[in-house]
Design brief:
The complex is a heterodimer of chains A (583) and B (200). Chain A has 583 residues and is mainly beta. Chain A has a domain of 130 residues: Immunoglobulin-like (Sandwich). Chain A is 5% helix and 45% strand. Chain A contains 5 helices and 42 strands. In chain A, strand 7 and strand 8 form a beta hairpin. The longest helix of chain A has 9 residues. Chain A is elongated, with a radius of gyration of 27 Å. The two termini of chain A are 49 Å apart. The mean pLDDT of chain A is 97. Chain B is α+β, with helices and mostly antiparallel strands. Chain B contains 5 helices and 5 strands. Classes of the chains: A mainly beta (583), B alpha+beta (200).
């Protein structure tokens, strides 16, 4: 592991989600949410190829999409997705990162309202959100939401090459059940893959189409110059009824509750991994266009035309395994599908649909990743499988353990297991790319000259302590191997003490930490050139130490200070020093 | 214009390269600095080899009580003036003088360069030996004397965990070529002078 990047969850190691600067990142319309359930990272693309600028990732539970800047490997933007619930068919990007797409797993009343659950059918809807990504900055904005029938939208992938401009979503629960879904959502012989012509809807929207619906969602943006995030509440969102845009959405019948929805590098084949089906269904984009052209429909669902299964079917892989979930591609005409129930990865050939090889996984694989998998140019040398069940693979750690993953060499005809490794659970999905794409852009430090934090201090002598009522702001600096100031007096019980700590270092990998006894937020880890703020509300009179929590230097153990807390009624003057006693 | 005077003209102009390129470079290598720390010494400035290197050299050196490398030293004012004056003298010599004057200029430059090097050595010695008595880390040599941290004038040297390299850069090459050329101008001028004398 090179780095754990906090996105939707608080991370006490660095103070993410605890520091004053990053608390706004976790703001939502439901208030501050300290955790998330992230699923599918996807790397930004240019012309169908991974460009290594950003990673997008979805939060399933309180629907959000985040952007991680690969210059710094830090989360720099989070947008909440209104009208969505169980943000699962997310967060996949189009060929030029025009959009990052977020589909809802659960259909819900739109807008949300108090209504009987049993009235689900026909009343609940599923929102598919198209979040535009600004080409230069990467700034996200919900361009429009397509309000679809009340199915579950499970996974999605963009068209590419010839199918660029389309987006494909698997659905299940086309039965529209609201209870005991394991049975009631498994009745239909076929569910659908929804094919959405987003270019057509984009044009409709650009011409004023759709309606602005009242909404309430947070847009949180981190500014790397102020080192501070801001959260803005947005009060409306543009929604589109798909039947208002003729030719924008079609349903492709796909057997048995398809899970993964994967598009091959050429953009021709759309794989529907019917998780309860004996066969793996592959649709043809060319045949889909011909069927649309020929208007050969097999009825409609809520006004959306259903194409005939036989008309769009490219072929199926016959009985490849049990419980297919996800497929990725090696760029050499082969596909690799995971099978949860039979616990294996199966390699098969696009076009001939023959099975070439199979390898067991340990155990019950979910997603698999080939570097560049969701792009027109996968680098098909390695593949790794991320499993849901660990059991006896590694040394025992009691009932709860980390999860297992396996790395395979796929450069030959036969897959070869290279490494079986435990990893932080649950390893849901991964995005991978050639390291060179990020290496040359990776930032080493934050330039102190670019630090625009309002409470930054830029030298040891620039530090100060300022009282504003019961708020005390300490403008503090760190540099090997001391804090300035390191003696502070005049704090009283009832004060809210803001430690604004600036790391004056400008050398690669010289962070300093900050911790004070009784700190009920978290420690701070401040990278060179950065300013971070921790609030401390002392509850006890005394002289309390603070210290550096990152082993910064040979004199790290000497990097400490004291803060004196007096009773609320005391008249201890506010004073501070470094290198000499407070007189 | 005589061939020797043309060479002398060139010799007089070459030291101006000191205003374009650094004179010297000191590099410090250690395992935890995969990109070594480095400092260029120009005729009128110190500069970072990579951003923030001087700041980081200072930070590291404060542990053993070394002073911060100053932003400016008096030499940064004196040396450029010295170079400009000697260039002007060199140009006058090239335009008006004969080969004997070329030799005088050569000797002048050697003397001034030696003085410059000695001055640099004094600064380096002070920098490496005049340590803060409250230094965090104190080291002594095997004979009990205080260990100094003077970087080498020329070449490479181990200093605690660092390997220090000190080598001339392009600016020094220009100066050397200039001084060398003035001597060549002298030799050429002398030879031609003999021919002229002989042919008379």
């Amino acid at each position: 592991m090179f780095k754990e990047i906090p996105v939707f969850s608080q991370f006490p190691t660095s103070g993410y989600g605890y520091s004053e600067e990053t608390k706004p990142m976790l703001n939502t319309s439901h208030g501050f949410i300290p955790w998330g359930d992230s699923h599918h990272p996807d790397i930004s693309q240019t012309a169908g190829e991974i460009d290594g600028r950003f990673i997008f990732i979805n939060e399933n539970n309180t629907p959000r999409i985040a952007k991680i800047d690969l210059k710094t490997f830090e989360t720099t933007e989070i947008i909440e997705v209104p009208n969505s619930a169980g943000n699962h068919s997310s967060s996949f990007v189009t060929e030029n990162t025009e959009y990052v797409v977020a589909g809802t797993r659960f259909s819900v009343p739109i807008p949300q309202r108090d209504m009987p659950i049993k009235d689900y059918k026909g009343n609940f809807q599923g929102a598919l959100s198209f979040i535009s990504v600004a080409p230069e900055t990467g700034n996200m904005d919900i361009k429009f939401q397509v309000l679809m029938p009340g199915f579950n939208y499970d996974l999605s992938h963009p068209g590419r090459g010839k199918s660029h401009g389309w987006f494909f979503f698997t659905t299940y629960n086309t039965e529209e059940a609201s209870t005991l879904l394991e049975v009631n959502a498994s009745q239909n012989d076929k569910d659908f893959i929804a094919a959405v012509n987003w270019k057509k809807i984009e044009e409709y929207v650009n011409n004023g189409g759709g309606t602005m619906m009242p909404a309430d969602y947070a847009h949180n943006v981190y500014d790397e110059h102020t080192h501070t995030a801001t959260s803005t509440m947005i009060k409306e969102v543009r929604v589109v009824n798909p039947i208002d845009v003729p030719g924008a959405v079609y349903f492709l019948p796909t057997p048995k509750s398809p899970h993964g929805c994967d598009v091959d590098p050429s953009g021709e084949y759309i794989v529907g991994n019917g998780k309860l089906s004996a066969n793996l269904t592959v649709h043809s984009f060319t045949k889909m266009l011909a069927a649309i052209e020929g208007e050969k429909f097999d009825g409609e669902a809520y006004g959306i035309p259903i194409l005939k299964f036989e008309d769009v079917l490219a072929g199926s892989v016959e009985q490849p395994g049990l419980g297919p979930l996800h497929t990725e591609f090696d760029g050499q005409g082969n596909a690799y599908t995971t099978f949860f129930i039979s616990s294996e990865v199966v390699k098969w050939k696009l076009g001939t649909w023959e099975v070439i090889d199979r390898k067991p996984t340990y155990y019950s694989v979910g997603h698999l990743t080939i570097p560049g998998g969701n792009s027109a140019k996968p680098q098909g040398k390695y593949m790794f499988a991320m499993n849901k069940i660990t059991k006896d693979r590694y040394l025992p750690t009691g009932p709860e353990m980390e999860h297992s993953a396996q790395l395979y060499d796929i450069s030959g005809d036969k897959m070869e297991l290279l490494l079986d490794f435990p990893t932080h659970g649950e390893p849901h999905y991964a995005a991978a790319m050639e390291a060179d794409l990020i290496k040359k852009r990776s930032q080493k430090i934050y330039d102190l000259e670019d630090n625009k934090h309002p409470y930054a201090a830029f030298s040891d002598t620039d530090t100060k302590v300022v009282r504003k009522g019961n708020e005390v702001h300490i403008y503090m600096t760190t540099i090997r191997s001391h804090f300035s100031p390191d003696n502070i007096e005049g704090i009283k019980i009832g004060d809210k003490v803001f430690f604004h700590v600036t790391n004056l270092e400008q050398d690669f990998d010289v962070p300093h930490g900050f911790a004070v006894l009784g700190q009920n937020t978290s420690e701070l880890l401040i990278m060179p050139g950065q300013t971070k703020t921790s609030i401390w509300e002392p509850t006890k009179v005394g002289v309390w130490p603070f210290y550096c929590t990152d082993f910064c230097s040979a004199l790290h153990q000497e990097m400490q200070g004291y803060i004196r807390v007096s009773p609320a009624s005391a008249s201890t003057p506010l004073k501070w020093s470094m290198g000499e006693d407070i007189e | 214009m005589k061939k020797s005077n043309i060479i002398m003209l060139l010799a007089a102009l070459l030291p101006l390269g000191l205003f374009l390129f650094p004179l010297w470079k000191i590099t410090l290598e250690a395992p935890q600095y995969p990109t070594p720390l480095g400092m260029y010494i120009h005729i009128n400035d110190f500069s970072d080899a990579n951003p923030h290197d001087i700041k980081n050299i200072n930070l590291m050196n404060h542990y053993v009580g070394m002073k911060y490398i100053p932003d400016a030293i008096p030499e940064f004012k004196i040396f450029p003036i010295g170079i400009i004056i000697t260039v002007i003298i060199g140009l006058i010599v090239a335009l008006k003088g004969n080969y004997k004057w070329f030799l005088y200029w050569f000797i002048l430059m050697i003397a001034l360069s030696a003085a410059g090097m000695y001055d640099f050595y004094l600064w380096e010695h002070d920098y490496g030996h005049n340590l803060d008595p409250k230094a965090i880390l104190k080291f002594t040599n095997s004979d009990g004397t205080q260990m100094g941290f003077q970087p080498p004038m020329f070449g490479s040297k181990d200093i605690l965990n660092f390997k220090a390299h000190s080598y001339p850069r392009l600016g020094a090459l220009f100066l050397t070529l200039g001084i060398g050329s003035s001597f060549i101008a002298y030799l050429v001028g002398k030879k031609n002078n003999k021919k002229v004398v002989a042919s008379e």
